[in-house]
Design brief:
The complex is a heterotrimer. Chain A has helices at residues 8-30, 39-56, 59-65, 68-91, 110-141. By secondary structure, chain A is mainly alpha-helical. The longest helix of chain A has 32 residues, at 110-141. The radius of gyration of chain A is 18 Å and the shape is elongated. In chain C, strands 1-2 form a two-stranded antiparallel sheet. Classes of the chains: A mainly alpha, B mainly alpha, C mainly alpha. The interface between B and C is medium-sized, with 28 and 24 residues.
């Protein structure tokens, strides 16, 4: 991981596998209400796909695609989406996280507004969990050295 | 007969107790810090399994109501046919907590290794004693 | 009166934590004023919630609009609102203190993350205070603990090792609490406190409920560092940065004690906790052990913060003693002592932080003649010390008065005697400190005879007045003023708030 150890088999298989894994992760996030899944599980799978990239390819090269600062911002954005949907419900007049009130701004009926609010929350959780998984892995794999850290 | 029924009839609880005690023993008695963290993980996993086991029912199916369209609340639902989804949801949260605690513990272990160059508890305390006596 | 303030009390610091991270990544200097703004609005919200509770009664706020046994609800009565005010006010004051102290002890780039985790800790504490659902308490307990582990590990020296020990023991405590919740859920099918209060009474003889109660008690005893499960506390709070020590020492143990009160007296009836089970005797003896052990160990320490940690263990013993005697006066004393102890401990730890910031000294024997260099700080230290000992009109006297009254009402003469004896021992600890500060033999006195005027001016320069900066002294003044005012107005506090917080069975 630290130094590049090129291996054709691993790289090819990863190239083939990672896009379906990410697609499956998005499916799991979106179908949490109907089959085993949800925000946390899908986020873990998405994070696992990135970790697989870090393991199979060079950490430095993958970090150029997924910078640590972007990771931190994504984590914050995920939590902000979650809390933000709740705050929108507060502003519209209902209790916190009462998605039924969202039918005032979305053109759907109440039960559908609840489902959409729930979906929004799952997406927020998924983004946050993905970035946290990547961040935990990076901190442990590089033993704490990351960009901007004074050593 | 009563003892055998007590052991075999509730074998799932015995499994969780055994797992919990293995994890708890590892947390307390092992000298290596990484083994303590592993024991912590086993302990929390056993608790999660215990919770989930309270949700299963004999011959139950997944808790999703098959309905045509419109309001599914019109017809009564036979609760005994569906597995209880609430403990699963609670345990999702507990798993997230477990992962978070594990991440924090691992980050602390990295810092400890960088400073003391070992994971063994007695060696770390020896180093601390040496540092304290030097002062 | 904002109708949504119970939810806002938790949402504001949570969103604030995330926005603090994003704002800090843009400009680092924005973090500190933003944190003050968020915590200031939390203080206002907590007073607002108390206003609603005083005028309209118990608040039952439904999260997500779902009705109680199916949805999570926030249950706020007088006890809750009181603790919420304490937590938010102390966090606000410690946040004012934190600016210079954290710049001194932490690298510049990490200050953003420090304030983010600080706000997450406050979110967890406020969430634990307002919620009315036992599993939600577990979630917020773990949020608080995780933020605490991270913040404590920032310190120097042995902080990482101490934090690791805290991780292992704290996880055991939280897992025991979770097991208790699981047992209760498996026999009643509900997680809501008000619902369980109705469902549990017929199950009091069932073994599952008894074991659940035992798990709750042990888990929470680990979290509040009740003797003999206190082992993690001295190391963790001594080596943590000064700001973090001040915040967690003043709030985390107190909110844990509040959860213990909730479980013993709201979830299970007072009849169950005090008469049916011999919890009064068990908790009483454990608390007595905590008081004696804490005071004796405090006598033996040389590090100032370690002395404060052992006094904190003794104070937790006072609170649990107040809970265990099981009458009105004792409970009033326990709740009043939560308030007083939070203020006193925050004040003392902030003074320790100010002394460390200015002089780098941690040990008491180094404090010799500190009163020449930092007279205002030493005055505040003396006032706070008088309050811990329990001398009127400071606040410490009034809570100990109620506790002794409670012990006498319950005919526990030995515990009343122990309360007074431990006050005496704490007085000895602080008298030793005062003696070292004011009356230690000065080594520089002999030098000035030998070397003449050169070192005489040097000695004067060394002892010139050099107080800690204003952003650190203002919070200390607020806390000292609080100690005096809370003592003078303790009667009003008891008659307005606390007397309604006492559970029905007393």
């Amino acid at each position: 991981m630290k130094e590049r150890y090129p291996d054709v088999t691993i790289e090819t298989i990863c190239r083939l596998l990672i896009p379906p894994i990410q697609l499956f992760a998005l499916y799991v996030i979106a179908h949490g209400h109907y089959s085993p899944g949800g925000g946390f599980q899908g986020g873990c799978i998405l994070g696992a796909s990135f970790i697989m990239m870090f393991i199979a390819f060079d950490i430095g090269e993958v970090k150029r695609r997924m910078r640590e600062k972007l990771n931190t911002i994504l984590c914050a954005t995920g939590v902000l989406i979650y809390a933000g949907i709740g705050v929108i419900c507060l502003i519209l007049g209902a209790n916190y996280l009462d998605y039924g009130i969202l039918d005032r701004i979305l053109p759907v009926y109440t039960a559908k507004a609840r489902a959409l609010g729930s979906l929004g929350i799952e997406i927020g959780v998924g983004i946050a969990v993905t970035s946290v998984m990547i961040s935990i892995f990076l901190n442990i794999a590089t033993a704490g050295e990351h960009e901007g850290a004074p050593e | 007969m009563d003892t055998i029924q007590f052991i075999i009839g509730k074998f799932n609880y015995w499994v969780y107790v055994v797992l919990m005690m293995i994890g708890f023993y590892a947390m307390i008695a092992k000298r290596n810090l990484v083994k303590k963290v592993v024991g912590m993980n086993i302990f929390q996993t056993a608790i999660i399994l215990f919770f989930i086991s309270t949700s299963s029912k004999m011959g139950a199916t997944i808790p999703i109501i098959q309905s045509g369209h419109g309001d599914a609340a019109d017809h009564a639902v036979n609760v005994a046919q569906y597995a209880n989804p609430l403990p699963h949801v609670l345990m999702l949260t507990a798993i997230v907590v477990m992962v978070g605690t594990f991440g924090v513990a691992l980050a602390l272990l990295i810092r400890i290794y960088r400073e003391y160059r070992t994971f063994e508890e007695d060696e770390i305390y020896e180093t601390l004693e040496v540092m304290r006596l030097k002062k | 009166m904002i109708a949504q303030s119970p939810a806002l009390l938790v949402v504001v610091p949570l969103v604030g934590a995330v926005l603090c991270l994003l704002l800090g990544l843009i400009r680092r200097e924005l973090c500190y004023p933003f944190v003050l703004a968020i915590l200031g609005s939390c203080v206002i919200l907590s007073f607002d919630v108390m206003g609603i509770v005083l005028s309209e009664g118990v608040i039952r706020y439904r999260l997500g609009g779902w009705e109680p046994p199916w949805g999570i609800e926030y249950l706020i009565d007088h006890l809750n609102a009181f603790i919420a005010i304490i937590v938010s006010s102390i966090s606000f004051v410690v946040a004012i203190f934190s600016r210079k102290s954290i710049e001194h002890e932490l690298a510049k780039e990490k200050i953003i993350y420090f304030y983010t985790i600080f706000l997450l800790l406050v979110t967890g504490l406020l969430g634990m205070t307002v919620t009315g659902d036992v599993f939600n308490i577990y979630v917020f307990l773990e949020i608080t603990s995780l933020a605490g582990y991270a913040l404590i590990a920032i310190g120097k020296d042995r902080a990482v090792l101490a934090s690791f020990e805290y991780v292992v023991l704290g996880t055991v405590g939280a897992c025991f609490y979770l097991l208790g919740v699981g047992y209760l859920y498996s026999v009643t099918g509900s997680l809501n406190i008000m619902d369980l209060t109705l469902l549990l009474p017929e199950l009091y003889t069932s073994k599952v409920v008894l074991i659940a109660f035992a798990f709750f008690m042990v888990g929470l005893a680990l979290k509040i560092a009740l003797f003999p499960l206190h082992v993690w506390l001295p190391d963790a709070y001594t080596y943590a940065p000064s700001t973090v020590s001040a915040l967690v020492a003043a709030t985390m143990t107190k909110v844990g004690a509040y959860v213990m009160m909730r479980i013993m007296f709201t979830l299970f009836e007072p009849y169950f906790s005090i008469e049916f089970l011999p919890m009064a005797a068990i908790l009483g003896w454990v608390a007595a052990g905590a008081m004696i052990f804490g005071c004796i160990q405090a006598l033996a320490q040389t590090d100032f913060k370690r002395v404060l940690c052992y006094i904190l263990i003794a104070e937790v013993g006072y609170i649990v003693l107040g809970i265990s005697v099981g009458n009105r006066a004792g409970f009033t004393g326990a709740v009043l002592h939560i308030l007083n102890d939070a203020v006193m401990m925050a004040c003392l730890f902030m003074i320790a932080g100010a002394i460390y910031y200015k002089t780098g000294m941690r040990h008491i024997y180094e404090f010799a003649h500190l009163h020449k260099k930092m007279p205002v700080t030493v005055t505040c230290l003396i006032i706070a010390a008088i309050s811990v000992v329990g001398v009127p009109p400071t606040c410490g006297f009034f809570s100990k008065w109620y506790l002794v009254l409670g012990a006498i009402d319950a005919r526990q003469w030995f515990f009343a005697f122990l309360l007074l004896a431990s006050s005496l021992m704490v007085a000895i600890v602080f008298f030793k400190m005062v003696q070292t500060i004011f009356f230690a033999p000065s080594p520089a006195g002999e030098e000035s005879h030998d070397h003449g005027s050169a070192s005489h001016s040097h000695e004067e320069h060394k002892h010139a007045r050099d107080e800690a900066p204003a952003s650190m002294m203002v919070p200390v003044f607020i806390m000292v003023a609080g100690i005096l005012l809370l003592g003078i107005f303790s009667g009003e506090i008891v008659s307005t708030v606390i007397q309604y917080a006492v559970p029905k069975g007393f």
